[in-house]
Structure formats: C-alpha cells, structure tokens
Amino acid sequence: MSVRIDSKGKIFTDVVHKEEVPVLIQTLTNVIHGNIFLRPEQRIKDSLNDNPESFIAVTGAQIYSPAGQLLHTAEFLTVNKQHIVWLRPDDKRPAHPAESVPGA
C-alpha cells in the first residue's frame, strides 16, 4: 500500500476494495445474520485467521436467540472472534430466521 503525505501533513493511502459477504455466525449464546467485508478472492477463513485483530465488523446485523427469536438489529456490530463457534456464508437468508437456527 502506498502512502502519501501532503505539505499540511494530511495522509493519503490507496483505496482498498472489499466485497460484502452475507454470513451466518453462531456465537456462544446467539446466532447473527449479517454482512462482513472481504478483499476480492479472499476466503472467510483467511480473513479470520490472518488478521490479528480480536473483533470482526458485521453490518446489517440481526441477532437471534437460540430459539430463533429476533433480539436486536444493528447497522454495525463488532463480534469478538473468540466467541465465534462457527461462521458460514449465508447466500440465502431464510424467510423465517428460525429455519436456519440450529435447534429451532
């Protein structure tokens, strides 16, 4: 990544293009439907393992109880990676969220 600093000290960097990927995240206590952002051709697994940050950003988040009840919605949410049990692409969000919630 190139960095340029102008005469006033303002820092300019290259634009990083990312793709929005719908995901389903099972945490220790809830299920989250939302979107994460990946660089083109990057795998979800690589994004989680290669990034030293403790949290991942999720947009358009819908948080469900284990029984499938919608608990909360948020335009932006950060999830602690240590609380993720599993995460998978969610190309087709169900009409009723409990359809994809384990145990529902």
Task: Give a written overview of the molecule.
The radius of gyration is 17 Å and the shape is elongated. Helices cover 7% and strands 48% of the residues. It has one domain (16-100): SH3 type barrels. The termini are far apart. The longest helix is centred in the middle third of the chain and has 7 residues, at 44-50. It is built from 1 helix and 7 strands. A hairpin with a 3-residue loop joins strand 3 and strand 4 (31-38). The protein has 104 residues and is mainly β. It has a 5-stranded antiparallel β-sheet with strand order 6-5-4-3-7, with helices on one face. A two-stranded antiparallel sheet has the order 1-2.
Number of strands: 7
Q: Beta-strand percentage?
A: over 45%
Number of helices: 1
Q: Give a short account of the largest sheet.
A: 5 strands, antiparallel
Distance between the termini: 46 Å
Order of helices and strands: EEEEHEEE
Helical residues, percent: under 10%
Ranges where pLDDT stays below 50 over 5 or more residues in a row are none
The first-level CATH class is given as Mainly Beta
**Main structural class:** mainly beta
| Architecture (CATH level 2) name | Roll
Average of per-residue pLDDT values: 86
Rg, Cα atoms, Å: 17 Å
Q: Shape, please?
A: elongated
Number of domains: 1
CATH names the topology as SH3 type barrels
Describe the strand arrangement of the main beta sheet, using strand numbers. Answer: 6-5-4-3-7
